[in-house]
């Protein structure tokens, strides 16, 4: 069930599955996707300032909660501060801008989008301020490697609650995942479907067939069974539904191992140690 949650180290509950809206167009496209997802039972939406669709996400939220008969407090909304807005003051301002665009009074999670060298510590301080002042429910990072996390934790008053990174069967992040588990940082998978590139994998097809499920469902189930929050993106109604129908089957430990064996450290996105 889509309301299933993990509990972050500050006690806030975060849904295991959410809708990602990277590359979903501002305007009617994103409004419809968010509204459909909420009506289908999704409670978590992942956007970012740089996706340039926060206004439409906000409208989709308002329409979705009305039609689903729920309230804003039932939702878990994430956005991210973009690299160009890093630094203490600029981050606080960027947060307010995101809130305004979304039409919300608070976010459930605000993330540092990328570990921009020399800039993410001040940015983290701003997130701590927003959290301490109770303007945001939880704070975290994205695309942080172990060394970035160690660096932040040396200076931080608050340990990040979440680290959102590229994670899928071809990039299973074994060391980072166990590091995050050790420090109670919830790992969250972006591009969980490798942007569609994994759907023809013979091993995944074989496992999917044996459960009468799709490859996408097997991958997303694998995330959850690994203790990783997942945020697949789709704008198609039937896929939005499909991607959330993953709570009625279980992968065996042998199947989990077979999927983990597909890892070859292959990325679709930039390397966090070497990006523009
Ligand atoms: P994804 O792995 O979720 O793949 C999405 C694509 O897979 C869709 O466009 C569609 O072509 C296909 N697809 C989706 N569901 C399917 C299904 N059931 N069957 C067949 N094909 C299907 O890729 P993504 O959008 O890059 O990642 C998900 C979300 O993660 C983003 O929307 C965004 O919210 C977040 N993200 C964050 C970062 C970051 O730096 N923090 C980077 C990239 C993405």
From TrEMBL:
The keyword Oxidoreductase applies. The keyword Oxidoreductase applies. Signal peptide: none annotated. One of its GO terms (molecular function) is oxidoreductase activity, acting on the CH-OH group of donors, NAD or NADP as acceptor. Substrate binds at residue 113. The record marks 80 as: Lowers pKa of active site Tyr. InterPro entries: AKR, AKR5G, Aldo/ket_reductase_CS, NAD(P)_OxRdtase_dom_sf, NADP_OxRdtase_dom. Pfam families: Aldo_ket_red (PF00248). Keywords: NADP, Oxidoreductase. Residues 26-263 form the NADP-dependent oxidoreductase domain. The active site is at 51 (proton donor). Belongs to the aldo/keto reductase family. This is Aldo/keto reductase. It comes from Paenisporosarcina antarctica.
